[in-house]
Amino acid sequence: MHIPKCLGFLALACLSAAKLHPRNHKTHDYYAIHLQPDTPPQQVASALGLDYEGKLGELQDHHTFSSPRHRKHGAEGLLEDLRLRRRKRALTGAGVLDGVLWSQKQKTKPRMEKRSGPPDNGLPVAPVADAEAVAERADLARELTIEDPIFNEQWHLFNTMQLGHDINVTGVWKQGITGEGATAVMVDDGIDMYSDDLKDNYFAAGSYDFNDDNPEPKPRLGDDRHGTRCAGEIAAVKNGVCGVGVAYNAKIGGLRILSKIITDEDEATAMNYKFQDNQIYSCSWGPPDDGQSMDAPGLLIRKAMVTAVQQGRQGRGNIYVFAAGNGRGSGDNCNFDGYTNSIYTITVGGIDRKGKQTYYSEHCAAQLVVTYSSGSGDAIHTTDVGVNQCYSNHGGTSAAAPLGAGIFALAFSARPELTWRDLQHILVLTGVPINEDEDWDTTYIGRKFSHAYGYGKLDAYTIVEKAKTIDLLKPQAWYNSPWLHINHSIPQGTDGLLSSFEVTKDHLKLANFETVEHVTVTMNVQHTRRGDLSVELRSPTGLVSHLSVTRRLDEANAGYVDWTFMSVAHWGESGIGKWSVVVKDTNLNEHNGTFTDWKLTLWGECIDAANQPLLPMPTEHDDDDHTVISTSPTFVSVKPGPSETATDFPANPTDHQHRPVNAKPTAPGATSTASSTALPDAPPDEDETNTHFLPHYFPTFGVSKRTQIWIYGALAIIVLFCAGLGTYFFIQRRKRRRSEREDYEFEMLDDEDAMLNGNGAAGGKRKGRRAGELYDAFAGESDEEQLLSESEKDEEEYRDDGPASAEAGRGRSQSRQGEK
Ligand SMILES: *[C@@H]1O[C@H](CO)[C@@H](O)[C@H](O)[C@H]1NC(C)=O
Ligand SMILES: *[C@@H]1O[C@H](CO)[C@@H](O)[C@H](O)[C@H]1NC(C)=O
Ligand SMILES: *[C@@H]1O[C@H](CO)[C@@H](O)[C@H](O)[C@H]1NC(C)=O
């Protein structure tokens, strides 16, 4: 044994681990560059006056370069010059720079918003537990030796009050399928790998902190709790601490990206990190759910997703699970979010413990499934940050998506060879329709689909059984229609503008295309008020997807610019026949627009697997090739499409919609401002007992007036009591604080309430202060600053406060990229 060599190797391993992804967006600029395969990146670096940082994640022939802010170099001018010459196809004589195919200076973008939910403060749940179910659960716990203290509160695993309203997982566990061999990773704000409830399942090798460049993505900021709570839902260990995860023997890792500003290059690297070992990426975040944003992931991130489905998991494709978004109360819809709207993500919405629609979970044609989360007086009970800490108030679509990730881990445990499309196929076939009196369509293959619930709720047992036996799909094929040029003004009122394209048998044969899975429509529409628009897609079978809905808060004078809308409703159709889009503007007002053009893409199973190439990587030019067909639209009479309006707002709905991260909270009451024209769209009131005894903005909890009086009376007493107690403890605490200096990492966290979703916008002095802290954290002045490593402190002298804070405060620009 050569000890020195061994030590040297260890030191090297440590060094390379520490230097995995060193980025400092305060002091350095970064450039992502796509090179010809044979172009040496070091030579490109010296030609541009930049430093070479290494390969860009898993993206083929993509590299990252950097420069300290203070260094003078001509890189930007040179790259711009190259771009122009490439466009003119006049590229000669630039030497090694001829090998530059594409470049992008990295812009820091505001943090993505966590989709943790509206708090639901454990209000009394009317029904009492069913004695038989309680006994059954006790037997099960004995049989599986589950001794975790909050297992009995984890109604999403076994609901003893609303029977049947759980993920139906126990029959899977009884077969010994508990997640062995499966690995999920929380792409979030960290994971507490030292929690007793997580540490035995923690997967260190698949984890990384991209915010603080550290191999351990542990929570470092006061509100870094979201990732840990989500991780507990997936894979909390069965060990007598807190509760258990859905896949309690699966491995769980963390990729920390939500706690600081990052760039597309960081995100693309994170989304492919250790993608042979990390099977499922659970993502409970996205662009703001404010009913106004229309943002899609940038090109590098879209390339990372295509790379993941083609190469990750030994070529079977990684799974991206995304929370549908909490913007329903703001009239938002998940087709306006480029992550949930992507064919590469499984979009999961939330229902409550009674199986009811929640006021927050967004609808859309791209939503595949729903599962349980907060509402009807309860929330998800899970692990929290700390050695032995539990949390009983986890909610929003943030809490739904990880339950999906846990169930998918069980499916991979049972059948590791499922591809990313097989898993989606299983969900199409196994979704359980709920609330069938609401708006459901029967699809071509006889499944039920709803824009509110996708194919229905997840049933772990049915999913795992289907996973065991389903025939694997042949590789993915696609068919692109030409661009259909319309250039016609959009009528207002009851007429819509319809444009059709006939897909023939020969078209599809030529494309080696057999059966439809996803359908995307890329379109350009100009309009002086984007929120007035809505779009239907009508398939040859007559099934209608509402690709876009009116959004009462969306005032953008922007329309849709090369935006790609996606629907999963047409899964199983042949694709042959006439596909139509109908663009509508049902709001009679001074705002009008023009339908410019559109393009249909069918994605699905190929005919001949031996003859099916992989999809080329997306490029910036995917929408340039307008092999245009000019067509005349026709007028059809239309009804206003659905628009998202929740009836059951919580006391202060605006509090929960978004954190004050990259958008100021809307003024109170903004969400109740209905648009001037009538939108006959409110979902049916669920309960006739739902009459109000207080003004309408107080929730009725779906109970009678008498019970409401009782609840509010009890609440008032509790509030008074807590206020008294709070004052007492506050004074005590002040005394204590003066006497001893507290030195705890999560010092800011005074109590659970202050944490309500890290939202901080809620009323009350303390919450206001917290919001300030979050803002500061963002601008670079947080408590986290105090945890800066020495090396970072050294770099502080180069710090350029101006641009960093300015960039931090700026909202993310309207993005034009859709899914290709
Ligand atoms: C739930 O699981 C049980 C087995 O534990 C199974 O018999 C049943 O079909 C599953 N699904 C539903 C919807 O009950
Ligand atoms: C669109 O139509 C208008 C007239 O309605 C015309 O002036 C314009 O040139 C057309 N644009 C294109 C790109 O065809
Ligand atoms: C929109 O309305 C304005 C004023 O009423 C009119 O001049 C314009 O031509 C209209 N544009 C379209 C595309 O209909």
UniProtKB/TrEMBL annotation:
Residues 473-608 form the P/Homo B domain. GO terms for molecular function: serine-type endopeptidase activity. Residues 665-680 have a biased composition (Low complexity). It comes from the Eukaryota. InterPro entries: Galactose-bd-like_sf, Kexin/furin, P_dom, Peptidase_S8/S53_dom, Peptidase_S8/S53_dom_sf, Peptidase_S8_His-AS, Peptidase_S8_Ser-AS, Peptidase_S8_subtilisin-rel. Residues 105-126, 633-691, 774-820 are annotated as: Disordered. Residues 1-18 form the signal peptide. The chain crosses the membrane at residues 709-731. GO terms for cellular component: Golgi membrane; trans-Golgi network. Its main location: membrane. It holds the Pfam family Peptidase_S8. Belongs to the peptidase S8 family. Furin subfamily. This is P/Homo B domain-containing protein. It comes from Lepraria neglecta. The lineage of its organism: Eukaryota, Fungi, Dikarya, Ascomycota, Pezizomycotina.
